[in-house]
Write a structure and sequence with these properties.
- With about 220 residues, this protein is of the alpha+beta class.
- Helices cover about 55% and strands about 15% of the residues.
- The protein has a five-stranded mixed β-sheet with strand order 1-2-5-3-4.
- A hairpin with a 2-residue loop joins β1 and β2.
- The radius of gyration is 33 Å and the shape is elongated.
- The protein starts with a helix and ends in a 10-residue tail after the last strand.
């Protein structure tokens, strides 16, 4: 074997190591990309979990603040508070098929207005006053005033909203909504269930911000 044969053997082996090196570099690059992708997913998941925890903490703080604000009426059993919604039986506020406040209902709203106004003043929220009815149609004698349960629930919500405004809740911090016989909390098959469905609820909700003006 001559010296030239040795050089020929070395030249023949060089491309193999070069290909092997390229292959290893490619595998290492792919591994790094997978690792970066996995780390990115983990960071995104951690950020979402942190955001969820913060939202739950904020919701718990909101409920606690609302419970403190309504401690008196809640202790007296005059209102209920569930999932951030303040519930008042329709029979306390209104006579059957009526949208005129009864004396006891008027006094109850007067006792709620101050705590609600104080609560809303410290938070970026507005109060949604919602009216609900059972599924029985309004009686013939009341059709001249209300076309159907939608209109009755709307008028009751408006009556409560106006009473709260008169007693100190800023008009910019409260609005009315009507649900008619939708979203019952009990069966309409018996009188007890229908009485529970005839109700007014008040729920603080985040204040909607006006959309930013579109660029010209």
């Amino acid at each position: 074997m001559t010296l030239d044969d040795d050089f020929d053997g070395a030249d023949a082996g060089t491309p193999i190591w070069a290909v092997f090196g390229d292959l290893m570099a490619g595998l290492l690059g792919g591994f790094v990309l997978i690792l970066v992708f996995a780390l990115g997913l983990q960071l995104d998941l951690a950020a979402r979990l942190e955001q969820e925890v913060q939202q739950r903490q904020a919701e718990a703080q909101r409920r606690e603040a609302l419970e403190r604000a309504l401690a008196g009426p809640l202790a007296a059993g005059r209102v209920t508070l569930a999932d951030g919604r303040i519930g008042i039986s329709g029979s306390v506020l209104f006579a059957f098929n009526s949208a005129e406040l009864q004396a006891d209902g008027r006094q109850l709203l007067k006792s709620l207005a101050g705590p609600l106004a104080a609560y809303l003043a410290t938070r970026d929220e507005v109060l949604m006053v919602s009216g609900f009815t059972d599924d029985r149609q309004v009686r013939d004698g009341t059709r001249a005033r209300f076309a159907d349960n939608w209109e009755l629930s709307a008028q009751r919500a408006l009556t409560v909203t106006r009473a709260l405004i008169e007693d100190g809740v800023p008009s910019s911090a409260v609005f009315a909504a009507a649900f008619g016989a939708e979203q019952p909390v009990a069966s309409n098959a018996d009188a007890a269930g229908r009485a529970l469905n005839r109700r007014v609820e008040m729920a603080p909700t985040p204040r909607r911000r006006p959309a930013e003006a579109a660029p010209r």
